[in-house]
Amino acid sequence: MTTRPLTKRSTRRLSEVARHVVLPTGVVSTGWPAVKAKCAEFGDTFDEWQEGAGRAILGKRADGMYAATVGGVVLSIPRQVAKTFLVGRIIFALCVLFPGFKVVWTAHRTRTSTNTFKALQGFARRKAVAPYVELIRTANGEQEILFKNGSVLMFGARESGFGRGFDEVDAEVFDEAQILTEKALEDMVAATNQSRHPHGALLFYMGTPPRPIDPGEVFTNKRNKALTGESSDMVYIECSADQDADPDDREQWAKANPSFPHRTPLQSMLRLRENLPSDESWLREALGVWDAHKGSGVIPGPAWKAQRDQLSRAVDRLALGVECGPDLAWASVALAGQRSDGKWHFELDDDQHTRGRGVAWLVPSLEDTLRKNPQIRAVVVDVAGPVAALLEQWQPGRWRFKHSSIEVTPVKVAELGTGCTRVLDGIVTGWLHHIDQPQFTAAALPAGKRPLGDTGMWVWSRKTAESDITPIQAGTLALIGAQATKVRKPIRARGGGRVVVLQ
Do 215 and 324 sit in the same domain of this protein? Predict the structure, then answer.
């Protein structure tokens, strides 16, 4: 977290344009800088969200292996968002940077595969790229780009049986992954088992939400694993409009498509709108909207939507809330406070998803935020939750993060129940606002209820939600801290000395 509580950026990061960003654990470095530099040599630059995606895709663990070499890179992104541009540039750069790099690029349909080949064939003939290219084969069934250093990029359609029988493949791109069958996946993934690439093989799954009639189990299962926290070695990025989006609301077009309108012009979107056969197709393919979950969350979608305010800002009684997921697989930090009009505000730390999964980033980030924003009155946690593993009780009833001097304000069960009710009340009755962050919305709307015995009180439930709800849990804790009468001031003494507490 930067000085986010006090300022707003004008640029759009990956965490701001994507509804879901799920990253692998243990990322300590990335191969993106070398790829970015090579692409600059080719004559290409990237938007900030694309750079964030590139850093995530090429993230490495301490052993130098790609963190996503097992689970793969899954991109649920609508049409007209230039996902082929991003992945294509990454693939070309890797082919140039690593001699003998072998890539198989497949689509379900021959037409899609051919169109992609034509686009990348044109790129290969660009003046800055052509010196690296030895030969371009254009015959059907042998569409290839061969590089002078021995790398090769092969194209074909799965419906024609392309992809079987290869070996020592270093990267596979599954375009139209919403129509990727388990049988085709079994036939092709084995080709990467003998990859010689020093950082491991990469599998890319790119697609839009599958139709009910599509064999979309592979793509759907990848998404479910990412959103339920079952995978620690996958990059999952989803861009989409709201579940209840008006198909012709251009604000929703911009929410689903981070390239609109500065790279994808209005005319392109209107052309796509005209040629897709129905609203249902438009919502899936152009706006990336998955079918609604069978269960519904506690917070009404229309009420949450009504409380969005891009200009909302907390100016007083600032507090942070911190929550961790099961097994410390991820963490969320939220800010809450009172606005200048007396109403209340909460938001998600929009930097957290650029730091990788896990919790290693958490304490340094909190220390940096508190140093830059000394007016923050509390850091609130649920000491009965997973975050307890990161805390120590240094005096009776007083807790702080281990190896730091950040004192936290713990909440009791009754306070947590009241806080959840307050969030719901604030959204429904209109006194609590948010800035419409996709990650925050994706956590808030699916969150269910877990009763607290027979008291009539409840807290947010993970079991009834189909995605990570730690952001809304952190937001609730932050609001509790902002509205509480007494809190523990998170003042840190120099040199690890005693902590001064102000109440």
Answer: no
Domain count within the chain: 2
How much is the pLDDT for 211? 84
Handedness of CA 181, 187, 188, 193 (dihedral sign): positive
- Provide DSSP, 351-366: TGGGS-SSSTTHHHHH
Q: In this structure, what CATH number is given to the domain that contains residue 490? A: 3.30.420
Nearest Cα to Cα of residue 355 among 368, 346, 342:
368
For residue 397, tell me if it sits in a domain: yes
If asked whether residues 113 and 183 sit together in one domain, one would say yes
- The burial of 495, by beta-carbon neighbours within 10 Å (0-12 exposed, 13-18 middle, 19 or more buried), is given as exposed
CATH code of the domain containing 164 = 3.40.50.300
Tracing tokens 């899936």 back to the chain, one arrives at 284
Instruction: Give the whole-angstrom CA distance, residue 42 versus residue 36.
Output: 10
Question: What global pTM score does this model have?
Answer: 0.69
| pLDDT tens, residue by residue, 100-119 | 999 999 999 898 999 999 99
Confidence label for 502 from pLDDT (cuts 50, 70 and 90): very low
At 354, the pLDDT band (50, 70, 90 cuts) reads very low
143, part of any domain: yes
Do 332 and 200 have their domain in common?
no
Element (H, E) at 206: strand 202-207
End-to-end Cα separation, the chain, in angstroms: 25
